[in-house]
Amino acid sequence: MKKLINHVDDVLAESLDGFAAAHGDIVSLGEGHLFVRRRTIRPGKVALISGGGSGHEPLHAGFVGHGMLDAACPGHVFTSPTPDQMLAAAEAVETGAGVLFIVKNYSGDMMNFQMAADMFERDNATVIVNDDVAVENSTYTTGRRGVAGTLIVEKMVGAAAEGAGKLAALKTLGESVNRATASMGVALTSCTVPAAGKPTFQLGADEMEMGVGIHGEPGRRRVKLSDADDIAAELTGAILKELSPKHGQEVILLVNGFGGTPALELYLMVHAVRKLLAGAGIKAVRYLTGPYVTSLDMAGCSITLTAVDKPMLALWDAPVHTAALRWGM
Amino acid sequence: MKKLINHVDDVLAESLDGFAAAHGDIVSLGEGHLFVRRRTIRPGKVALISGGGSGHEPLHAGFVGHGMLDAACPGHVFTSPTPDQMLAAAEAVETGAGVLFIVKNYSGDMMNFQMAADMFERDNATVIVNDDVAVENSTYTTGRRGVAGTLIVEKMVGAAAEGAGKLAALKTLGESVNRATASMGVALTSCTVPAAGKPTFQLGADEMEMGVGIHGEPGRRRVKLSDADDIAAELTGAILKELSPKHGQEVILLVNGFGGTPALELYLMVHAVRKLLAGAGIKAVRYLTGPYVTSLDMAGCSITLTAVDKPMLALWDAPVHTAALRWGM
Questions:
Q1: Which of B179, B209, B240 lies at the terminal end of a domain, its last residue?
Q2: Can you tell me the mean pLDDT for B107-132?
Q3: For an interface test with A, which of B23, B226, B267, B296 has the most A Cβ atoms less than 10 Å from its Cβ?
Q4: Could you report the per-residue pLDDT of A78-95, keeping only the tens digit for each?
Q5: Which domain does B307 fall in, by range?
Q6: Kindly report the CA angle at B297 between B132 and A259, in degrees rounded to 5?
């Protein structure tokens, strides 16, 4: 295992310490590394809290800040955070308008966020994200997995929360953004969990995992390595089949790197997907390209499309100031 | 070779097409993919132009925009751009105040930028960046290599150019920022150039290349894989030896990923370097963490420190709006 780490037990805490120092103008750490929170909370705003296993950075801590999350709870690598973490985060950042939990659809996350919601004695609601169209049910999931589309839900709901959205309306909005969002990914290599010390799965030198999950879970099929245009066609085709956009539909295109794939290739994928969208009469009106929802050091990428109307686009364009997304301020 | 590409000959053009589409609000492409330029040029400002081989994205095209470069010339992967590219870029973005070329110290880049400067009939000057303290002379270099510190030179000189800095003063500033900046990197894996189809160099499963260059050039020594604290100590030690900062010196800390290393590890390195800086009485006042000056898919990172005074810090903090760096607007 080749990683820039010290002891495997300290990876998360040391990384969070570095993150909190590097972005000390935006975030602070909860005691015991239980959560990352905004340094400054605005009273009266619905508090948005997400979280999940680590290893997907910048998701979620990188999206804490103005216009997105109020707190994020990092579990150990690929392990759900505990209910205590969500509870501590909720108590730290809730200011009277309630808490909206944004949860990726993995069984462990679902259970632990539900327990926290039950324990939390103030108003709260939950949005489940399940944008991965690759497979129904999976290693850690009943139903579809929540993947890179989570950041789009967090961005749009975050913008609405800054605009004084109420808890029930934000939940409705989040569910609506989730329905308008679909993703699918491909792995060219496995990831390696530090505590395991060896690759999560084995791929031949000429193989790829089509429809892979963000923990290296199996996708639809293991196939021979193909070229970027073919990969883009399969991923985009599956996504468009799900979204069934009308001719002329405007979309946000997120080409997300899994951690081991550089920008040169991700932008090439942008070009490949654009050609397909043009052929399908779909118009990409906003782009986001980079390693935003990673799988440790896995090589590969995912494509996410969100079908947008004008209000959704305004929420996307609204100012955001987090470690990983920043514009308009 | 596992990459998201089509034909190896088309990698650069297809990636640039995707980049230009994704960031069409900021940049446009010169004809024949010769250069990436700001969409909107402000007359009377000194034009800043950089460039170099591709494979280091987002450097340089990702730094074109308000507050940094006016144009960037991408060569083929790890290959210098041609003088024709710099000349075409200069003619496209120069508006009467002259051109400052920012050139990383590689023999090919130096020669080709010099030829372009000689052919260009308007005022121009050149800043050479050579921040890599790992080795003197190298595979493609006489003297020290220019690496991740280049982005700090581009950021500060870019801010000064927006503030109506004159050509001679900007050259002096760039040289001063370069002198205040030192970097060193480590590779855990090789990179693979698409046209070569195989790793540039071979590293054993328990080896790393200490002081590696951003094209996979040899560093100081090949050693047994070590832990993050040890790696940080060697890199930071070499940098501090070069900069000889006084006690209490303020610095910018850039922990740069080489393309195959995810944020989880880069932030852990931030923490490791912070501990060392604290021990040396040095204060990191700004941080930048991520894959900014990459080496294709190489795993590893570099550390860069820039010793700053108040005016330099103000230039760093000044608004910037590029594909890869954005704040204050």
A1: B179
A2: 97
A3: B267
A4: 999 999 999 999 999 999
A5: 181-327
A6: 110
Q: Which residues of B touch A58 (CB under 8 A)?
A: 263
Closest chain A residue by Cα to residue B262: A259
Q: How close is the nearest chain B Cα to the Cα of A224, in Å?
A: 11
Task: List the CATH number of the domain containing B173.
Answer: 3.40.50.10440
Is residue B151, in this structure, part of any structural domain at all?
yes
Domain assignment present for residue B4? The answer is: no
Average pLDDT over residues A293-306: 98
Residues A234 and A275 in one domain: yes
pTM given for the model: 0.98
pLDDT category, B194, cuts 50, 70, 90?
Answer: very high
Instruction: Indicate whether B6 belongs to any domain.
Output: no
Instruction: Work out the pLDDT band at A185, boundaries 50, 70, 90.
Output: very high
* Number of domains forming the structure of chain B: 2
